[in-house]
Amino acid sequence: MSVVRDLRVLLRLPDFRRLLAVRLLSQSADGVYQVALATYVVFSPERQTSPAAVASAMAVLLLPYSLIGPFAGVLLDRWRRRQVFLYGNLLRALLACCTALLIIASVPDWLFYVSALSVTAVNRFVLAGLSAALPRVVDADRLVLANSLSPTAGTLAATAGGGLAFAVRLVAADSDATVVLLGAALYLCAGLSSLRIARELLGPDQELVQPRLAAALTSTARGLADGLRHLAQRRAASYALGAMTLLRFCYGALTVMVLMLSRYAWAEKESEGLALLGVAVGVSGAGFFAAAVLTPWAVGRLGQYRWIAACAATAAVLELALGLWFAPAPTLIAAFILGFVTQGAKISTDTVVQTTVDDAYRGRVFSLYDVLFNVAFVGAAGVAALMLPPDGRSVPLVVVVAVIYTAVAVAMARWSRVTAAP
User: Cα 403–404–408 angle (5° rounding)?
Assistant: First the structure.
């Protein structure tokens, strides 16, 4: 099987394996940390969670650093990416320890959110840097395969980390601080593993590097404007990013719905609802894995844009058919399908951006990509808060999401015909 053969070749590349190890450890830590935060905010027995409360938590955690994300990208294009992985993960390990102490001390919510925000803000540098560095360790012919393996493996690692956090939380009551400390240990391992990569390997090119912070900051505004102009000139990347942003919006809205269904509609006890949510996360992770296996084959036959269109069309039909039941079994099937189509579209989007954006701009463009991801997720949470009743059952929300999926499918199908025209 050609995919398996190419995969073996890819894994024989030592620099790719080292970069992948950093991603796996870093994103498994993300999964542990994010589930710890979610369970602390949503499933603590003393908290009465509402859709509005979930949306507020997401806004506090995601919006502030999303607004400064492009500036982080400009810095990322001037700092050694290997050093970003090293110091970024070490800093997150320290900050996660601080979050654990705040949970134990039962401090006011705003102080807890500030600490959590600090950890997740550094994540923008690390994830954008991982995507920007991938073309430096893989040849162009295998970039689609690398994009199917590396980010998806990272997502699976995050899912596994989340599953581990769920298990710890279910076995030991009131263990949120312990789970956060587990995430801190994984961040530490991720930082140390980056030392196996040569300092100069991941770029950016030497003539673009400004190691002095003051020099990098003075050029931030100009570099951001250059990056936006560069993206505007790459219509393929702009279209793919726009489509992926809408798909992320849909995924975010449905995530909030499943959170509320797990908390109030499917179980009487918080532990039972938490277990169902953990199963949904695991099933969605299986969809990510299936997308990693099938996307290179599908892209080879359909092309990047038609594959994104096919993913969105599949989601539009099946999300509507399965979501309106508001029952665990159909929802878990939908979780697998939506995990598959969202990750399949993301693999193609990553490849389009990497192959159409110059290396000197990749860091800031992937930071912008990250910003769009988070703003879309927060916007989806806000819309869900307006549309969802306390138990999470909302027919209008399911229908609106299906309409958005359909619009993305139509737009990307049309764009694929434009790019195929002579």
Answer: 120
